[in-house]
Structures are given as C-alpha cells and as structure tokens.
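Action item from last week, closing it out:
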Amino acid sequence: MNSNDENSGAPRVALVTGASRGLGAALAETLAQDGWHVLAVARTTGALEELDDRIQARGGHATLAPMDITAEDAMRHLCRQCHDRWGGIGLWAHTAIHAPPLSPAGHVGAKDLDRTLAINLRATAALIPLVEPLLKAGMTASVRSTALFFDDPVAGQKFYGLYGATKAAQIALARSWQAENAKHGPRVQIATPAPMATALRARFYPGEDRSLLTPCADEARRILAEVSA
C-alpha cells in the first residue's frame, strides 16, 4: 500500500474496490471530498495514481492499493494492514466487476467463464468474511458501518448470460448477507445506478449517445446521499 497520509489517527475510512475508474473512482473522489480517508483498490496503478492526484488536488486523502481482488492472500494481507492501521472501516463500496464479451449462452468460452466467475462471484464471496470484521470494528454506538453493492438487472436478457448470471449471483450473496446482519450490522445496501458513461457500458452499447447518460460523479453523490440518509 502507498499512502499520501501517514497520520496514525483514526479517520473515517472507506474501502473502495474497483476504484480506478467509472463509478468506483467517482465514489472515491466524492468520499474524499466529504472527509473520508479512501483506501482505493484496483489493478491499474496508473489510474489509481491519477485518482490520487485528483483527490489531493481537492484536499482529500487516499491510500492506494494496486492489487487484483482475486488474489486472496493479497486481499487478506490488505485487510490485516487496514485493521492494524485504523482498527476498522466505516464503508465498503464494492464496484469491481468484470464484463466478458457479450455472446449467446451457447458460445460462452471457458476462459471468459473462469475470469468472470473469479471476479464477480468468487472474489466477492472471499472478501465478505475479510471485510466484515473491519466493518464491525468501525461501528459506533450511533453509526452502523455500511457495505455497498451495485445491482445491474440484465440477467435473462439476450447475450448477457455470463455477465448477468454472475452479477445476479453476486447480488444474491449480498442480499443474504444483508438479511443476516439486519439487526446488528453492518448495514448492507444495494443500489441500482442509473445508466452512466462508463467503459463497462461502452463495451455493451458501443454506438450509444453517451451525452444522454448520467455522469458518474452525479450518480456517486446521489447514491452516497441515500446511504447516509
């Protein structure tokens, strides 16, 4: 982890997985502007550094963790470091997702299947037991920590079989975790973002007029306002 803030105090800490671009980056920037210390996780080091530059330019603070969420040992080490440094976290926003090529269900390739399952489902299932203790440790008598997931209800549509199935499975897992923690926390919330001008959407709709889509920054502010309500 590389941090621009070595203060050993106890800031409000938000973990954002998939923070390098799109909604994840927008959430990270918005949280930093609101006074959170952002622990930003993504595979692309250059994009994380650009995110950090934008956060610092607005007076915010971030810790960069350039790693693959499917590397379970690395994520376990990251969570251990997070515990040792801050004690716990107040928010986990899980935006990391893999979008395989759209294809008929009968033409799904084995490599695409393995990679999509690894990121969209297996990594999520592995992260929940690692992050849950951090969220519980970050709770106070008046504030329940929050895990935030993002639904994309395309399951069952033509050519979305692999992406739609793994995304639906991820959300089903999140809903179970939500029900299990309804009384005592952490809170688990599931948002459905509006169509945004992201690289993910561009892969699905290459000819779409992107000027009609919602800016990621606007959607990040809306979602976080709902979470804090």
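Closing note: The chain has one domain: 2-228.
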